[in-house]
Amino acid sequence: MENLLTTSELTVPEIQEILKCAQAFAEGKEWKPEKQLFLANLFFEPSTRTKCSFEVAERKLGLEVIPFETTTSSVVKGETLYDTIRTLESIGVNGVVIRHKEDNYFQELIGKIKIPVINAGDGCGNHPTQSLLDLLTIKQEFQSFQGLKVSIIGDIRHSRVARSNADALTRLGANVVFSGPKEWFDDSMLQEANYEDVDTAIETSDVVMLLRIQHERHDGSTSWTSEEYHQMYGLTKERERRMKPGSIIMHPAPVNRDVEIADELVECERSRIFKQMENGVFIRMAVLKRSLQSVEGGNVHVNDYQKWPVA
Amino acid sequence: MENLLTTSELTVPEIQEILKCAQAFAEGKEWKPEKQLFLANLFFEPSTRTKCSFEVAERKLGLEVIPFETTTSSVVKGETLYDTIRTLESIGVNGVVIRHKEDNYFQELIGKIKIPVINAGDGCGNHPTQSLLDLLTIKQEFQSFQGLKVSIIGDIRHSRVARSNADALTRLGANVVFSGPKEWFDDSMLQEANYEDVDTAIETSDVVMLLRIQHERHDGSTSWTSEEYHQMYGLTKERERRMKPGSIIMHPAPVNRDVEIADELVECERSRIFKQMENGVFIRMAVLKRSLQSVEGGNVHVNDYQKWPVA
Amino acid sequence: MENLLTTSELTVPEIQEILKCAQAFAEGKEWKPEKQLFLANLFFEPSTRTKCSFEVAERKLGLEVIPFETTTSSVVKGETLYDTIRTLESIGVNGVVIRHKEDNYFQELIGKIKIPVINAGDGCGNHPTQSLLDLLTIKQEFQSFQGLKVSIIGDIRHSRVARSNADALTRLGANVVFSGPKEWFDDSMLQEANYEDVDTAIETSDVVMLLRIQHERHDGSTSWTSEEYHQMYGLTKERERRMKPGSIIMHPAPVNRDVEIADELVECERSRIFKQMENGVFIRMAVLKRSLQSVEGGNVHVNDYQKWPVA
After folding, report:
1. C59 and chain A in contact, CB less than 8 A
2. Do residue C269 and residue A87 have CB atoms under 8 angstroms apart?
3. What DSSP element (H or E) covers A177?
4. Which residue of C has its CA nearest to B64?
5. Which of residues 2-31 of B touch C (CB under 8 A)?
6. Rounded CA gap, C153 and C159, in Å?
7. Same domain for A54 and A44?
8. Which residue of chain B comes nearest to A268, CA vs CA?
9. Residue A2 covered by a domain
10. What SS3 string covers A238-276?
11. B207 and B120 assigned to the same domain
12. Does residue B155 share a domain with residue B252?
């Protein structure tokens, strides 16, 4: 049983192993567990996109997906996450995919439950399957990360993805730079990657990774219009023309068209935006396989606390 | 790949082909695609009845149905329908069933996405699977449409079904008349079918098709009580006794009992109301088969915009 | 076709038969219907826990579970439960699991629909699968009910489970006593079982069955804090030490930790709380099998009211 909680906990060989497995799925490889296995997706923060991607991955692996409605669950009435997951474990669920707005929500679970937890996003912190699908997309394009220049542009402070990606890409041998409004940067971020102005970053990178503007998270202290942001920090058609030959554009989606990126560029030659979504399914298949391949399946007698046998 | 968007786009031979296929399913024929195929039902306007019917049809065909929660999707945050469907296409969904309150919502999709769209209702306009299930029910009863008299009674202006049915039935050789409160009619409707008073329509028709009173759509300008409506325009027990021998009663449901139709008549000998629901599953199976039978299945590399190969 | 509506309608041999079948499932027995069968879970009152348990049971039996969203169904617009279930029957659903806040909601269905109804809880009254899973847990522990002393402690007046359990346990040969705040008892309850003070009940019972405090149902007339309730009527660590050797603790969950039971005792040696949840799946499999094993499957022509044949 293997959890997947953060990108940073994965060693470079573990990342490479997941990418290799995902690539095999992309090329048509199939894998199904020997027994009927049950999985539940607990999305305490809505995310149709990520949830649908997990659902497709789960069905491709032949898993039984148990619907779990977070809005009506006992968690709303104050039940702890531990008690909820322990209940699912008791009724025979073999693994859980969780998205939760609280940072590191999984700390209360680890070591106490026996089924794997796959983190589908926590607070502002971690979103490892998104990082891994980004890595797969880059690897498919360039075969190796060694010496690649990757610029990550936008609201890095609020981005689950940016910080995990910067860390993993650096460990894999890439050179990462951050860009975007200087107002959104602080010193802690600049320990992770250097800052470059937008034009330099876009012109010199192999991968231009744009982040979604999180309107809902900002406090109004920055007062650009969408059009102003686009001209100052967005990937305009004019900037795209100055990109390196063979370089690619990435974005975790959903895209604010004509804000982070010009509408016409979303599906341009360089864009790997929909390719990223496609790869998300293969990454999730690989991650699920990694977590579930040693699970025996079926309900097991879970009450280990009892010291005398139940007939 | 075939979309199903409106009844009017279907030729008479196409309608006959769908009815024939649905009748074969009604008689126990089975069909399943060779590969695992994924489908999503996007109901932006709730309709448990239609959604459940599609779900049963989809499961009978062995499809994988990916849950899609419209209330928490990015569409709510302003994502276009195109970007949503394009995302589903990217993650490997092979077809979408959509209900949407906007008229002709599908215009922004057609020609731009590669997976089939099946329209499960748009605005006040089209609801082709409802029309087709009505046609199947009539055909099962009378074998042919030629020379049949069909009266459609009620709120025709607000009815998705009435106008599509009138058009299709006329093309198939039936004689359609409209009836109900004159206040609810306008000139455009009377180009589609003649108006007859309720008593004449009911006494002389082979098929009496009642429409649901859409309380929620009316502006209060008509001020009948339910009882008054029932006496003036409803199918009362007294009117039912004057129906032609062998004639049948239809209603798209849900029924307002004792408004459009007397409570005791909902499941009377002449009623095909629950038969219509039963036929809905077979029609949806036929329509899904028509759309999916040429789909290869599996994720395909969807980024056609890129001009250089991805490893 | 067998409904499961209340525990009291089950004879002792019927209860024993269900427990035997559930125990076989617990030991790994498998059973699947010969044909594809469809089931819908209609939870008009939310209960993630019970719903997930039914879902796992249904998937283990290979059933097709049709999602039914009660919040958007026509029931909200005033459609009767009968019309809703009749619709599901018409589209080919072979059985329904229903939770509803109205007492005996199923009375309007019985004898009028042809598919089995499994009651997953009604009002304050019945919750037969919860009773049966409690019985299975006790039987696994003690092999027989004869002469066992079972105390049920807490809010018996508002408990679906307590009264059904008291009745069934008594019929099976056990000696049941009630305990908890005297203010919560009335004469009708004391016809079902004797009252004992909490300390006596806990010290002398083979099974201590705690009930959840239903904060949401109380009117504020009782004014203990959680801590006060715990000290006066809860299973404290101190009380647990005085329990009989080999005696067990049960609770229907979700638990209010440190109210009905001390936090540390929820997973102690004596606790069968998570074992109960595990057993819930096997009971639901047994109950579903009992209801579905004679169903033929597939859509049947449901319009029995028509007197002339449909082609």
Report:
1. yes
2. no
3. strand A175-179
4. C64
5. 26, 28
6. 11
7. yes
8. B305
9. no
10. HHHHCCCCCCEEECCCCCCECCCECHHHCCCCCECHHHH
11. no
12. yes
Cβ separation of A277 and B83 shorter than 8 Å? no
User: Where do the H-state alpha helices sit in C42-127?
Assistant: 48-60, 81-90
CATH of residue C157's domain is 3.40.50.1370
The answer to the question of residue B288 being in a domain is: yes
Nearest of A1, A2, A37 to residue A298 by alpha carbon: A37
What is the number of domains present in chain C? 2
Are A165 and A83 found together in one domain? no
The pLDDT tens digits along chain B (311 residues) read 799 999 999 999 999 999 999 999 999 999 999 999 999 999 998 888 999 999 999 999 999 999 998 887 777 777 899 999 999 999 999 999 999 999 999 999 999 999 999 999 998 678 999 999 999 999 999 999 999 999 999 988 878 678 889 999 999 999 999 999 988 888 877 777 899 999 999 999 999 999 998 765 555 666 789 999 999 999 999 999 999 999 999 999 999 999 999 999 999 999 999 999 999 999 999 999 999 997 765 555 455 556 666 65
How many residues are given for chain A?
311
Bond preceding residue C254 cis, omega within 30 of 0:
yes
Using CA atoms in the order A285, A287, A291, A292, what is the torsion angle rounded to 10 degrees?
10
- Residues 238-297, chain C: which have Cβ within 8 Å of B? none
A49 is in an annotated binding site: yes
Interface partners of C (3+ CB pairs, < 8 Å)? A, B
Strand ranges across the sheet with A64-66: A64-66, A38-43, A95-100, A117-122
Q: Based on the fold, state whether residues C204 and C251 are members of the same structural domain.
A: yes
Residue B297 lies in a domain: no
- Give the separation between CA C303 and CA C301, rounded to whole angstroms: 6
Q: With an 8 Å Cβ cutoff, are A69 and C53 in contact? A: no
Nearest alpha carbon to residue C112 among C304, C309, C282, C306: C304
Residue A1 placed within a domain: no
Shared-domain flag, residues C118 and C135: no
Ligand-binding annotation for C270, yes or no, is no
- Provide the domain limits for residue B234: 129-272
